[in-house]
Model the fold of this input.
Amino acid sequence: AQSVTQPDIHITVSEGASLELRCNYSYGATPYLFWYVQSPGQGLQLLLKYFSGDTLVQGIKGFEAEFKRSQSSFNLRKPSVHWSDAAEYFCAVGARGFQKLVFGTGTRLLVSP
Amino acid sequence: NAGVTQTPKFQVLKTGQSMTLQCAQDMNHNSMYWYRQDPGMGLRLIYYSASEGTTDKGEVPNGYNVSRLNKREFSLRLESAAPSQTSVYFCASSEGTASSTDTQYFGPGTRLTVL
Done:
């Protein structure tokens, strides 16, 4: 069965500093990987997704993620964090032939002045 | 183009009361989903509908029922609410027929408290 681990429950980053949010997945075949962001009081919005090809994918709002098959990871990065990036971030994994997307437990990002 | 809409935004119920959460999408999507979000547990799938007229159980279906009224609307019913159902409920939709490889589009959520 697929599973997703986001090991960091909370992360605090200073505004302007770089950010990396960790995501590890467990699945035998080729995973379909997603990062979603949830701003306070809002629903989830897709940041980016990886299906195949180039392992570095670009998303909205200046985010990128790198797929590393050898480490079963799909970490989210941003070179310079803005206060508006404070939100909760969810990694999710799907696969061909499976109907259900599996979400991680989320990482809450706090941005300090 | 409103995307996915949910009503109500907030609701307080007493134990044993019933209610229906409404969800509609205007993107002509085939699949629709109901999730609940609890602190530290991420999103858990309650029910989903791969196409009009079909529904299937997700990870946590007990205590809930759903209806796919038409292609646009997918409702979630709590017949006898319990405090354990206090949560934030999200509806989502996707273009394909319930493939986990599709992008899902989420509504703004309903915050439900059961006293």
